[in-house]
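Hi W.,

Here's what went into the run:
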Amino acid sequence: MTITKLKPVDVVVVGTGVVGSILCKELADAGLKVVGLERGRMIDPQHDFAMPYAHDELKFDRHSDIFQNLSRETITFRNNMSQTALPMREMGSFKPGECVGGTAAHWGTHTRRFLPWDFETRSRTIERYGKGQIPENCTSQDWGITYEELEPYYDQFEHLYGVGGKAGNLNGEIQPGGNPFEGPRSREYPNPPAAMTYAGTLFAKAAESLGYKPHVNPTAAMTQAYVNPYKLMLGQCVRGGFCSSHGCANGAKANPLTTVIPALLKHKDFELRPLSNVIRINLDSDKKRAVSVTYLDARGREVEQPAGLIILASYTFNNTRLLLLSGIGKPYDPVSGQGVVGRNYSYQSAGKVALFFEDKAFNPFMGGGARGTSIDEFNGDNFDHSGLGFMGGAYVAVSSSGAMPIRSTPVPPGTPRWGSAWKQAAAQYYHGNFTIALHGGSQSFRSHYLDLDPTYRDANGLPLLRMTFDWSENEKKMSAWITNQAVEIAKAAGPSKMSVNPTAGHYSIVPYQSTHNVGGAVMGADPAASVVNKYLQSWDVPNVFVIGGSAFPQNGANPPTGTIGALACWAADSIKDLYLKRPGALV
Amino acid sequence: MPAQPHAYGYLTQPEVRFLDAAVARLIPADELGPGAREADVTCFIDKQLLSAWGTHGRNYRSGPWPEGTPEQGFQSRLTPQEIYRAAIRETNVHCIKQYQKAFEFLSQQQQDEVLHGLEDNKIELESLPAKLFFNLLLRNTHEGFFADPLYGGNRDKIGWKLIGFPGVAASTYNDHIEKHNVPYRAEPVSILDILEGRAKVDAQGYPRHVMLDGQKKAGGDDNH
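Here's what came out:
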């Protein structure tokens, strides 16, 4: 294979999703020569997501070519270390992206901040309840950064992505209509909250009747036309559904393709290289400094791109895998508990209460972009966990995300899977149902981790990443307890029938759950328990930064994208303000 | 309404007859209206089998192939094309042994028995677990009933009309979203309708919906 060695640049960014696009823009604006390498193809939203083709459920939700192409690379999975991991052969539990714009090109626009508690999970739990509250073998830890430190960067990201919502806590003052449990924010959301669907209103009324404080879900689907700080214009969302899994036909979904990349492509110091699959970071002889990355270009040629600074900004799995393939950081060993790369892989737990009504019409196809309402009384440590036997929590929400018929034609419990009875129930309840969903956190445990698979390989002959993960007793107890509270809200809404499904049994790779995989290259204050420091800088190789969901030491209940975006803005500032002035270890 | 004749690119005639009979039991024609057979679901499956999906174009295909746990998901070394070919033949072998007739000639009750036998893994197929075939068939039947008619199924938008799904969205939902408990019932519009000029679109390319049941027109300021 021909190896081409290119001229050095200042910065190479691996991945052009939420993180990569922001890092490229901020560092190019700082005067650095930046190359963005993206394994997926180029996207032109005007054509790739044009009407009417954008409203094709089969194409985008089932056979999308902007999801990861598993024929080249997938992960292997097992529930525990005694099993043999097998490849995820078809898309299931999660849908990582593979295109310019990354996974966020098809995200659902739920943009929440983590709670202050989420960043100090271990110390605050011990402080309030004592060490006995932490489950056995739980490796959840503090992030090494606090909510207060990250707040300006949440604010920056929310303005970049034009998030619509209502503040619940402005500089410590509780605001009516917002989420009173959120951490203090320095200013209002850049856009107003979305108008409410019938399902969202019915849930809010039922929750209010039980004394809860419902609020409108924040969303990055524009609630009005918006110009962001990079001077890019986003259109107002028309609430036509076809949102999550799909690209947006009228540019109303904030994502790298609408909020950053058009500005970036005009930048003289930036070059985007799609269809460039990075396979290795190359280190110098004493393994203290990265000198280049090696990637395969579209023609399969090996290309070496030297750079002074290398930023891993790809999906959780690929960030972790590239560290393992490159020998950066000590791989985690679950038996000894030593090592860090691959440690603290985590996900998000769930719970569902589906409500069926005889006499209501919810127009379920209207919506998209996280439209709906939620309550935060059961999130994080917002309630007293004494005697409950678990830590963490869930927010409880109704999302009118635009019910597409293949994916969202639910039927009441007891309905046969096929035949006239199924047909009758599907016809009767498509308009007359909605779901109250738990979006739950997931603590980290000693036996949940990522490493390289000993058997299965990708199209380049490199080992696949192996995931070992199952639901813990902690998450199952938490989901069961909060689902019971959700059932009471559901009853207050007055359905004729309900189905109740907390997170239970073994985690399965088969049904879609969420693309909220985190951990594996976690941040922290202690090099023995983290891969990167609080600035997202590798402890071992200081000119490598690893940014993304991979940095979460455990998962909060709120969707991760808001926090991933905030970490990207924080890391960009840390590089500009600290690292460039004094290249080397920042801690 | 009988299924219309089609040119099949992958399926053989016995396979077409098997699938026509099977999908007609999964989503039957009944007092609520036509079912999966009338919606041309067999034609949809044929086109899907010819697509990249039919050969696992975007799925991981390397061995080894241990059976695994249910939580580990699909682990057959067969592609969807190969699954349909093998499973239909082997199910018919079972039917002939049990009832002395191929599947399409059985009574509806016998057909349901066979489908339940596949669903519950009670029928032993040689090449793959029966349940794997049944679940694939049921999934493809739902897809063929509800996907855009662009893909050869959901003929006349039968599936969408059954549940009241309007298809390609209008750009005017913001005017309706706060009209709570007021059903929005529009004549469904497919991508195919728009491509073939049967539906009017606005300047952004969104269709103008024609309301059913004497509802006020939802297409905004359409003067065409």
